[in-house]
User: What shape does this take?
Amino acid sequence: MSARTRHKSKKMSDQSPDPAQLSCPVPDENRDSVQMAHGGGGRMMKSLIEDLFLPEFNANSSNSAPPHDSAIISTDAIPAGAGRLAFTTDTFVVSPLTFPGGDIGSLAVYGTVNDLAMAGAKPLALSAAFVLEEGLSMDTLRRVVASMRRAAEEVGVSIVTGDTKVVDRGKGDGIFINTAGVGLVPPGVAISPARVEPGDAVIVSGDLGRHGITIMSVREGLGFESDLRSDCGSLVGLVSALLEADHDVHCLRDLTRGGLASALCEIAMDAKVGIRLRETSIPVSAPVASACELLGLDPLYVANEGRLVAFVPAQAAEQTLKTFHDYFSAFGPSDSRPAIIGTVVDEHPGTVELRNALGGGRIVDLLSGEQMPRIC
Amino acid sequence: MSARTRHKSKKMSDQSPDPAQLSCPVPDENRDSVQMAHGGGGRMMKSLIEDLFLPEFNANSSNSAPPHDSAIISTDAIPAGAGRLAFTTDTFVVSPLTFPGGDIGSLAVYGTVNDLAMAGAKPLALSAAFVLEEGLSMDTLRRVVASMRRAAEEVGVSIVTGDTKVVDRGKGDGIFINTAGVGLVPPGVAISPARVEPGDAVIVSGDLGRHGITIMSVREGLGFESDLRSDCGSLVGLVSALLEADHDVHCLRDLTRGGLASALCEIAMDAKVGIRLRETSIPVSAPVASACELLGLDPLYVANEGRLVAFVPAQAAEQTLKTFHDYFSAFGPSDSRPAIIGTVVDEHPGTVELRNALGGGRIVDLLSGEQMPRIC
Assistant: This one.
């Protein structure tokens, strides 16, 4: 296994096909137009962000920390003792608008509060901005807005500002929703990829792939959804419980586009550490596993919308797992299956390795593009 | 002239056709689907917001203040002496993406910092979230992103967090950009429609209608744009100058969708005051005036993207005008034509009246829909 650095992984010459994509055409990153794969959470999106957006937007920013789910706003207007402001944004273009376990409205609220929670921030306020397609049914809009309200109520956050634009029929797709969120990171909380270090335990909060497989099933009419619901939900309460339990959490990441694999690859690259996973410990429910097998998908890459991965010191691993179990027993969902799935190592920095039951290993890499478009 | 209250203006039975719209079909607010007019900044948008969004989103909000360009985040985490947090969001769907005087990128930065400035807030940070249509040229994206960076540099604000989604060809329109902004309202600054009171002078920062007519001209290939550029620009410096000059500004509003007329109608309704305008004082440049005449448009309703209206106590009116002139002499644009255009009165609360040179008057009402779709 050759060690790969963050720098190398961006080079054009480094385009060995992903095993999981062998049956798909490999998109050419050199092409001069935007591809669906640029939105897929994989290598092409990473490259778009690092090569096009960050050089412009970091030019006048003092922020040189690794990219994280939320940005910390540097301001001397707020006294250090009051905490730090976290700020995040996400646009939701999921298709279809409604699916078992949620809809674009609840997804838009949970997605953004989860990004705040990943920085250890308590949500203070959300914005909601709509792009509506001419002809959209008012009933659909009403249902989505009511769903946003219920999700915001559950989390205990207010949607305080908004915007509505309408685009011509055929220039949008029903509803797109942007939610931005402002949160407060309590004094003393420091959760960031930069704190991940060899020896840390890698823990997931539940089984993988429900959201992606649910969307895929509804979209393609596959009929799996009788057994499946999206895991779409808030991680705010779970993170509060983690912080209260004081396990010295080093890093949190929610597992959205690109799934567990992409989240871990990014953290391994940003923190310049290796990550070793035990395949047999990774929780995947039976319906997701069989759907993945049927569709030729790898559940490690399938999107989730209510799962996180936590990095904690080895000695806190069992206690953290207990905190997860206790939280789900008290507040649900009761069928979450949190698990310790691996360890951070100082070998092969920037790389994630998956060890199977027999001790064999394979590299878990960023996909070039995506397995499924418009999953969130 | 019959006085109209805010409540009445929302009733279905109160649909007298707008004079400015006599030649267009009047959209039916009862229809059960989203119309282009719901995004136009007029009565249909107001009704969508008040009847559909606010009842849901205010349900769990402590915010009962009249809607404003930015929301103030209530939190006891920040000591009162540090100021108050302002938060705003705006999605930009302007078509075409580029126009004389700007593009969707600069518009997205200026639009959101202007909304912060209207609350008297200094911008702390922006987010940028993109919905890209598959097939969009990378060169176009690069130019738009560079334009955002230049605009942010000019304003002195950083774009600290972002998101990128890609939608299938034919489900978007090139680029949509959401920018959300967080700002800090300095202690002691209180700028809000609630402070507008009879006797206040009404002052615009420059001539009206450039942005709307420029977009219309480019879109329809009318060829006016040799004489015209959008007024798209930042109002942050101008508002700083106003606050430093300490004129006791009661309210500020930037004149975007729906133009001056819609901004004033909303403020009259929210503050429960009348507004009387002097038609001959309202600045409109010759090219905008002739384009409006040709197209049958009323410049009072045409969009601007770098103009504001200020409400100040009568005794501060001339000094405020001087502050505007001094600011434009020092920092440009040198062809801005600020003007005192009217007065707040205690007659006909909720209504804006336009007096012509002969002393005759007409009511300036919210349009049902819009004069021009996708202007911002």
